[in-house]
Amino acid sequence: xxxxxxxxxxxxxxxxxxxxxxxxxESLQQLPAFSDDDALSGINEQVSPPFExxxxxGRGRGLIANKTLHRGDRIFAHTPILMLDGESFGDLEKxxxxxxxxxxxxxLPPKTKKMFSALYGxxxxxxxxxxxxxxxxxxxxxxxxxxxxxxxxxxxxxDCRPNAAYFFDKQTLTHYVHAITDITPGTEITITYIxxxxxxxxxxxxxxxxxxxxCSCSLCSLHSELSRASDERLGQIKxxxxxLEDWETAPLEMAQTLISLYEQERLHAPRxxxxxxxxxxxxxxxxxxxxxxxxxxxxxxxxxxYGFRDESFQxxxxxxxxxxxxxxxxxxxx
Length: 334
Known about the structure:
InterPro entries: SET_dom, SET_dom_sf, SET_domain_protein
Number of strands: 12
Pfam families: SET
Largest sheet: 5 strands, mixed
CATH topology of the largest domain: Beta-clip-like
CATH architecture of the largest domain: Beta Complex
Protein name: SET domain-containing protein
Order of helices and strands: EHEHHEEEEHHHHEEEEEEHHHHHH
Domain SET: 49-194
Shape: globular
Strand content: 15-25%
């Protein structure tokens, strides 16, 4: 049975409404976000935002940097105000889940409810449902898919080559956004709504069908010949990534080429995997300082793209500290 569970006091009065089942909300309540008073310290606080919201020709409203942001600078760290269990959309009749969505929104504290009401909703079904559908991020917790609304982060526009990256911390229910490259004052801060590895036509089709706009970012506006070259690089990136799944037999030059292709494509966040492969292959070849160099970049980019608790980068930390102590050291020379 799906119900709405609301807390006015969550996140120091920001509040939250969760549409899910009683057993699932009981599981969520065990998370530090609910059980540890210090878990959300410094979250949802933005005394001096590094941006200003303004009207942008042909793009609606957007966030413009008001100071120089460097890679790793935090832009947002916020908890959701709404979380909706993905199964509710299939298990409930339309009238039922619309009523529950309205209840979830109405149960929010006045200030938070006002933030939700200020969000744009692509006109489709219902004012509340439209705002959720347009602005929600898909999350997975304990193998359950939720759709969560973060009003502040929802103000970020899409770009197929964004200058900011985001991840969701499951323990604190916090959505982080950081600069993934240098952002100068006057530049719009953007994220990607889709997998940026897709070629032009697939990107355009997905953005149009899900968000109702035709992307006009710099990548999607390239001359046809330049766009074709970009699509070819993206295809090559996929083929190399597939080959590097067997990194133990791959040449270092392959990982280096992948790094170069990512740089050409201005795909800043996904580069972490290329550096990860380069560090491991360098380790196998006994290239001490190369291993450290690649591992350090893999760690930095991985933290910004996958989060602070991602276990896959623990090995990179060891490689960055002392490559010779890892099992991969000199493996190809034995």
